[in-house]
Amino acid sequence: MKKPEMNPVYRRRLWVHRVGIALSFFAMAIGLFFLTWILLTLVVKGVGAIDMAMFTQTTPAPGSDGGGLMNAIIGSLLMVGVAVFISTPVGILAGIYLAEYGEVSWFAKVTRFVTDIMLSAPSIVIGLFIYAIYVANVHHFSGWAGSFAISLIAIPVVVRTTDNMLNLVPTSLREAAFALGAPRWKVATSVRLRAVKAGVVTGVLLAVARISGETAPLLFTALNNQFYSDNMNAPMANLPVVIYQFAMSPYDNWRALAWGGALLVTFSVLGLNILSRTLFNQKVQH
Hints:
Layout: H1 8-46, H2 52-56, H3 70-101, H4 106-120, H5 123-138, H6 143-166, H7 171-179, H8 184-195, H9 197-212, H10 216-219, H11 239-247, H12 252-278
Helix pairs in contact: 1-12, 3-6, 3-9, 4-6, 5-6, 6-9, 7-8, 9-12, 11-12
């Protein structure tokens, strides 16, 4: 009997395995290289704009010196906060419905199909949709419109994450709860959801990271505001749109603030992703 290392089939498979591993490491190295390049570029060009004035002063007028991004930061926080307030309960409840009734209900199958489409839909299409049904009817841009647009982006993320996490709960745990006489809604909320609450929170954080840097929907809904405003029923400044406008401007001060804002958004999203994968990284409780 030939030794395994002398078998031609074994040797061919071994070489295929080695080539596959080498190509995988090569692809990973390329991705890490460009990611590191992007982060280093942001740090080098944006760290100079990070100071107290960025958080305490509003966006400067064209051609002027100084200024900051306070109005854009507050506007982004307000719109993202409203979007999370809308998308979290809707997404979690829809995910519970899909997990509990998704196997037998045709409506659940349609909901899952539509959710998958929304996950891959271009964000600019969602912005145009909100513009057509809301902005065009009220005849003005507003922070509410921006929140509605990005909430439509966040909802499918929360729905699919909740659905997937609930399906990880062992069947024995559900059957034990049913055997004790618990109704179905109680099992879904107090047993299944509680067992995977960390995973659901992770989905919410990933949704926040997903919508924090969206620009296209806000161009059609919230637009922008050079001055400080916390009126959600009026055009509102936000970091993504300010970064876009300042980066395309001929003024050095604006471009510097754009790099600083890009650095702030990037590391905020990076921090949310790290938080979702570390602090809330737990297995399903048995």
